[in-house]
Write a structure and sequence with these properties.
Largest sheet: 6 strands, mixed
Radius of gyration: 18 Å
Strand order of the largest sheet: 1-2-10-7-8-9
Helix content: 40-55%
Shape: globular
Number of helices: 13
Length: about 300
């Protein structure tokens, strides 16, 4: 891969590298949800993925692309939870020491997962600026491989493998719906669907709508205050991802907090699966916008503490 934008071939290359380490996750369907959405809906269950989210794909894609350096120097990242847990597990599988800079306010469930997979946690404040300041302190004088949560060509290509699999498992899909936060999953979906005729659409919380605003005006927006229950979507679009999604003219549907929680409960009741609020945003957006034909929804993760569900 060049230092610039990844392409569809990079998604396929990432799939080959990470294939031995990931699950080919299930695709589920519910007639009850079809009736509410006005179209056939299938769900790509990345909540069943190792580490509990699609983030495992990107973490493995980065480490496997520069494995010798990662094994010699270690890897570091900042994360609100899922990316940190994924990198911790990927590091354990590939023999890489991992450090995760993590907000002290992050989900206790997700913090325990990072620790369980063997990574060292360094606490920071809740904002992106505070994360980056703490990260710089950890990196000072070290040669650790930085693995961004979303804004990296290998991350984007790795996340695109989820959509690539979905299109193989459900070839009648017309539209793929994804949640959008940092934009790695959405950008990867755009690459994977390229040339297939399948549209990619995104859902975003009203309380974290920087992607909707930025793509509308053509200028990347800063991250909003961390208020939405969809904690995995509280970050701003990455620079690379903004470029990819702006050129694609990604359509983003904003949804309320109540719509997110209603969609989460709907998946719980109809699909009998655990999905975190960030995962429910894509379904909430599909229900808000309406659909036709066959829609694929990527359930991005299921890392939620059951007593709080």
């Amino acid at each position: 891969m060049s230092a610039g934008r990844p392409g569809r071939a990079d998604v396929t290359a990432a799939a080959d590298r990470i294939g031995p380490y990931i699950h080919r996750t299930a695709v589920l369907h519910s007639r009850s949800i079809d009736a509410l959405a006005g179209c056939r809906v299938v769900f790509k269950c990345e909540n069943f993925q190792r580490s509990g989210s699609f983030k495992m794909r990107g973490a493995l894609a980065v480490l496997s692309a520069d494995l010798t350096r990662a094994q010699e120097c270690g890897a570091v990242t900042h994360s609100s939870g899922n990316h940190g847990a994924a990198l911790a597990l990927a590091g354990r599988l590939l023999g890489v020491t991992v450090t995760v800079v993590m907000p002290a306010t992050a989900s206790a469930f997700k913090r325990r997962a990072v620790e369980r997979y063997g990574a060292r946690i360094v606490d920071c404040g809740p904002t992106l600026e505070e994360r980056e300041t703490a990260l710089a302190a950890v990196q000072a004088g070290a040669e650790m491989l930085f693995v961004p949560p979303y804004d990296h060509p290998h991350i984007v290509a790795g996340q695109g493998t989820a959509t690539q699999e979905l299109l193989e498992q459900a070839p009648d899909i017309d539209t793929v719906w994804v949640p959008v936060g940092g934009g790695g999953l959405a950008s990867g979906a755009v690459l994977a669907a390229g040339g297939s005729g399948v549209r990619v659409r995104a859902g975003e919380p009203e309380l974290a709508d920087d992607a909707w605003r930025g793509l509308a005006c053509g200028v990347r927006q800063p991250a909003p205050p961390p208020r939405t229950a969809a904690d995995g979507l509280r970050t701003a679009l990455g620079e690379l991802n903004f470029e990819i999604l702006h050129d694609y003219a990604l359509a983003v549907t904003r949804v309320s907090e109540q719509a997110i929680l209603d969609a989460q409960r709907l998946m719980w009741n109809c699909l009998k699966i655990v999905a975190e609020p960030s995962s429910a945003v894509a379904l909430a957006a599909l229900l808000e916008a309406g659909g036709d034909g066959c829609a694929g929804v990527i359930v991005s993760g299921g890392n939620v503490d059951l007593p709080t569900l």
